[in-house]
Each structure stands twice: as structure tokens, then as C-alpha cells.
Amino acid sequence: MGSVLDGLDLVPVARARWFASKGREVVGVREVASLAPEEADGAALVVCDLTDAGGGSTRYALPLRDGREAVAGDALWPALARLAALPGVEVPTGPGRALADDLSNTTVVLGERLVVKAIRLVEVGSSPEAEALAALDGLIGVPGFRGSLELDGATVVVLQEFIPSVGAGWEPFIERLVLLAAGREDILGFVRELGALTGRIHLRLSERLDVALATPILLAARRDEAERSLDALAGAHPTVAARAAALRERLALLDHAVGAPLIRIHGDLHVGQVLLRPDGSPAIVDFDGEPGRTVAERRAPWTPLQDIASLRLSFDNAAAAARKRCLARGIDPAPLLPWADAARSAVLEGWLDALTPPPTSTPPPTSNVLAWYNREMGARERLLGACEALKQLAELRYAERFLPEWLYAPLETLERRFREGA
Length: 422
Description:
2 domains, 14 strands, Aminoglycoside 3'-phosphotransferase, Chain: A, domain 2, single chain, alpha+beta, five-stranded antiparallel β-sheet, about 15% strand, about 425 residues
């Protein structure tokens, strides 16, 4: 065993949010590969197989120094950034700072200019985020791609531009909704622009990465997978059982989506992935794809309506969290429900507008593979309903496994948005 693994405490490893086998003790570790840059002064990024008490083994990347997690100020981070950087990218010197705690990956900001992301769950193949950011490079509202690093056939580091913000993620968005309920905030315009940015992202991805058409086999596979998940969730949660028929109705709408254009999508787009920039405009980050899916699945084309469905449900979840805070602070939460309805419409309208090129555009609108979503309105609405059911089930699974304290929000959204015949 390499010295950098000596003394590694496996207890906090088993409790980490990025550890997939939740609730199981880690009983073994085996080094597969490591990267110890000379400038890191003894620290290393170690790819290793962690064996849990159930006998399962999963491969992870661990940034370590002396058997402990390398902190944000460690020399390892700028050293990794220099190895990952594209030619001409200048890496700031000096210690970094953690961008956020307890995420699925580890992100460190260097010099307020670059973000180093260490990908925890290691899978052979190109990183979905590295590919997406490279395709989107130069698009305003998306981090610029600055490089990536592979180890043992897998992408383990993604280097990207740091986008300054005055609010990032769930917490500030929920607080903005509390202010909205109190009559001191209006963010519907921001939501519409968020939809437009999402549309511009989808257009660029459709131009530069793989596209496909939805087939009966693909749609049936998604539906079958979701129905198995629904069966498991309904057996554990009475609220899900009470809405099972409504969810099945929505999932059945996938059958009507044959021929819909499929592209590379964000895959996990919610308000937690949205930044409020200093000029008031949105930015979108974290293009890793849906948690729990393989690299191949996250790179595969899917309907861009999945991202819109995810955003719409995240507005409902944020409103549920804001409602809880309003009640605790003596604020009337009544404005939150109509706001959520309006936000769902606004984000879709902004997205559709972005997909509609001006009459004088070159190339002509007929060359836009996403024009289908403006043209086939009935099919679009049915597919959007199905995508919301897919995302609702994924959100419930994720909260149940990783964030049980958050489960109340998607359960509340489930009760409000999913009714038979609706």
C-alpha cells in the first residue's frame, strides 16, 4: 500500500456524501493508481477501490495528504490544475478555497479565476462535464472550459473558469422566495432568462455533440426503469403510493414521444446549479449529469425537456422549503404557490423563445433540430409531463438515499403536482 494511504481513516469515508454505498462500513481499500505531482509536496490524488461490508467494490478518487483528505489550501490543487490546464491557461499560485462542502465531487477555487473539480466516483471514459463545457466554451452564462486530467483511463479532474456570483445554489434562492412572500422580491424575470439561457445551451450542444431521435425501444426502457423505481418508493412511502397511479399516467406519455429530437443535456439542472451573477443574470454550472447514472448514460442523448422539467420541479421544491421558513418567521407563505405556477410557465416560455431563431437568421430555422419542440406542441406537452415524472422519481430516490432531511420538499411537490387526470 502506498504511503499516502497509510493511516487512512475509513469511517469518515463511509459517511461522505459522495460514497455510494450509504449505510455500509468500508472494510477495505486497494490502490489502483496515483498521481503525486512534485509541486504537491507529498500529497497525491489516489484512485482506489473501496470495499464495503456487503462485499461491493467501487472505484473512487481520493485527494490525500498523510492519510487525510487534502484541504482546499493544499498545494495539491494548483499542482493538479497545472497538469490539467490547456495550453496558455495560467494557473494562479497560492492556496485555494473550498467552493462548497459535502458535494458529490470536491471543488476548489484558485485565485478567484479557476475551479478545480476532483471527480470522486471514477468510471472509465470521458467526463460528461468536460465534453459539455468544451462544446459550450465561450457561451455567456456557462463556465469556460480550461482543461481536464485523466488517470487510469478515467477523467479525474476538470478545470473550468470561475464565475463570480452574489448568490449560488439552493440557499440564496430559497431566501429570495422568502423575501418574495414578504413582498420584497420579484424574480420571475430572472426565471424567464434562466429558461432562455437553458435554450441557448441546448442549441449549442445540439450543434456540437451527438443528436438522435427517440425510439420506441429507448422510451420503453426509460419507462420500465422508472416504474421499477416507483414500485420501490411506493412500498416505502404512503405519499408516493397515493400518487402512484398519477405517476404511471405521466410515464405512459413517453409512448407518444417517438421521433422527438434527443441531444446532450445538462442532466441535473435545478436551482442548486444556478448562480446569480453580479449583473443580475443567471449562470448554470455542474454539467456532470444525473447522479446515479453511469458515464455512458450521462453522455447519451436525451430530450432537452428533461432539463426544463427538472427546473420546474426545483421551483416547487424551493417554494416548499421557503414555505417552511415563512411559517417559522411569521410570514404569510400564500404568494409562493402562485409564484411557482408562474415560474413554471416563465421558464418554459424563455426556453422556447431561445429555440426560435429570428427570421433573418443564418442558417435558416429548418436546420435547427430543436425546432420540433416549438412545432409539435401537443407532443411536447405530453413529453414534458413524462419528464417531470421521471425527475420526480429521481429526486425522491436521491433524497431518500443521500438527503433524508430534504425529503419533505419533493413529497410536498408530489402531492401538489401529480394527480390522476391532471
